[in-house]
Amino acid sequence: xxxxxTNLFYKYSDFSLINTPNDVTISLTSYLVDAANAPxxxxxxxxxxxxxxxxxxxxxxxxxxxxxxxxxxxxxxxxKYNKAVAGSxxxxxxxxxxxxxxxxxxxxxxxxxxxxxxGTIVQSVKDKTSIRLSSAATSTLNTxxxxxxxxxxxxxxxxxxLASSVVNFALI
Length: 172
Known about the structure:
The chain is α+β, with helices and mostly antiparallel strands. It has helices at residues 65-81, 157-171, and strands at 7-19, 24-34, 51-57, 83-89, 95-96, 110-112, 122-127, 130-133, 141-148, 153-155.
């Protein structure tokens, strides 16, 4: 039985900072891991569930790089892991079918919809078009499901280390 994650950790695998005379482009390729340091796996590719964060600024803050980068990363995580999808429910079944794309859906995400018991989470991603829930549907219908990371506690402690690198790089 999968539970909703309580503590997740943000990790980055690649970082670039491109400084031009008019602006600064920051690019972070990142992923999330659970408390056991196990990364989220993309069910469609069977690889790490990477996401890239890019932001363009006219200048970087003089201080507070860690808060700035954490905010940028948090917004990207919300964008990637909070989504609305159409799916088909069958009363008594915990499988949702007919989803056009299950990328960005991972075990532990909260699911809200008509025909689903409150507190239901994603148990597993079966394939590219279906997911298994922690509770069976209460009715049969085609519906819109809201899948989110509400209640997740994500640590951005690795951002502090990265921010030190940015400051050192920016001072060169």
